[in-house]
Amino acid sequence: MVKKEMIAMLLAGGQGSRLGVLTQKVAKPAVSFGGKYRIIDFPLSNCINSGVDTVGVLTQYQPLRLNAHIGIGIPWDLDRNVGGVTILPPYEKSKGSDWYTGTANAIYQNLEYMESYNPEYVLILSGDHIYKMDYEVMLEYHKANNADVTIAAMPVPMEEASRFGILITDEANQITEFEEKPAEPRSNLASMGIYIFSWKVLKEALIKLSEEPGCDFGKHIIPYCHGEGKRIFAYEYNGYWKDVGTLGSYWEANMELIDIIPEFNLYEEYWKIYTKTDRIPPQYIAPEARVGRCIIGEGTEIYGEVANSVIGSGVVIEKGAIVRDSIIMQDSVIGAGAVVEKAIIAEDVKVGMNARIGVGEYAPSKYDPKVYQFDLAAIGEHSVIPEGVQIGRNAAVSGVTETADYPGGRLESGGYIVKAGGNL
Prior knowledge:
Elements: E1 6-11, E2 32-33, E3 37-38, H1 41-49, E4 54-58, H2 64-70, E5 84-88, E6 92-93, E7 96-97, H3 103-108, H4 111-115, E8 121-126, E9 129-131, H5 135-144, E10 149-155, E11 165-169, E12 175-180, E13 189-198, H6 199-208, H7 217-227, E14 232-236, E15 241-243, H8 247-256, E16 284-285, E17 290-296, E18 301-302, E19 305-311, E20 316-317, E21 322-324, E22 327-328, E23 333-334, E24 339-341, E25 343-345, E26 350-351, E27 356-359, E28 377-379, E29 384-385, E30 390-392, E31 396-398, E32 410-411, E33 416-418
Parallel strand pairs: 1-4, 1-8, 4-5, 10-14, 16-18, 17-19, 18-20, 19-21, 19-22, 20-23, 21-24, 22-25, 23-26, 24-27, 25-28, 26-29, 27-30, 28-31, 30-32, 31-33
Antiparallel strand pairs: 2-3, 6-7, 8-13, 9-15, 10-13, 11-12
């Protein structure tokens, strides 16, 4: 039997429904980020940079692109004969098929995979956060405290604390109380959803709570371990960490990459972020083009004007087109004379000539105010925007649309058009 000191289990099955049209056909961890990467590249790169070479990736919702992206793990040096990266979808069992119903249930269903490495420690990660962290340092901390469970935690503004699992610790950083999304938080130390478990403790808790519906780490496993008197410690992290779960935070995290001194640096030699890249050609910027403060992906052609934007690979911005304060994902085309402002445009979108996206004043969403509450127009992948139409702020479009879909040539702010095959 092969023995690994620590293996990682990466939860990447989430739909990311608060990203609206961006995740209707793709799992949140597979969404593009920073012009070149996908969100899952960050925890995978952290693993290999931390010396963790055995990673199980648990997928469920729309896994095709994620599976194709990860492949056998070559970009992250995770194509190993022993260990490496393994995709773990829910599978048919003799007593029928079980979807993953909660974060801990997903891990429980893969006990056999973990057993096969007989690890001393298991690192539980989420596939949808942007950060750099050395998990080896966290493991050293776990060992030094003789801990059963270590939870990575970071201080958050008190007014946001009720969105997180909140930890209350003593002077030795041992957790005395754990509250999942409390209405009246008593601390601002938030769980980051990154856990190191001693394997025996994790296994016992998963088996014990296996019948719990929707079994979840924050709601069930951690409180159970706490109730059993296990040694649970908080590992405080003070670096950059962003949960890109909403359109607003996703847009902000991309825009922070183009700051003069970015808080999150993609260019550090010693902590590289790896990704699968199929693009070879360099970008082309035409003589009449104007480009300022942008990230521009490989193989992109710019003939128009681009400012304060993150442009993915293989994008074409035609002559006279203007793109400002926006994210344009790979293989999209912005037609001649079109204007795009404060928008997120997903992969393989065609914006017609002289169309305008992001016009007028903000208005609340008529579709889903919980998702669409930012000053951003969102266009789902493979959508087509006809020539000359105008799309307001905080609007959502999904699918191949025609001029007839836009009364008077306009989609008002807060409006939406969802065509067959597209759902928000």
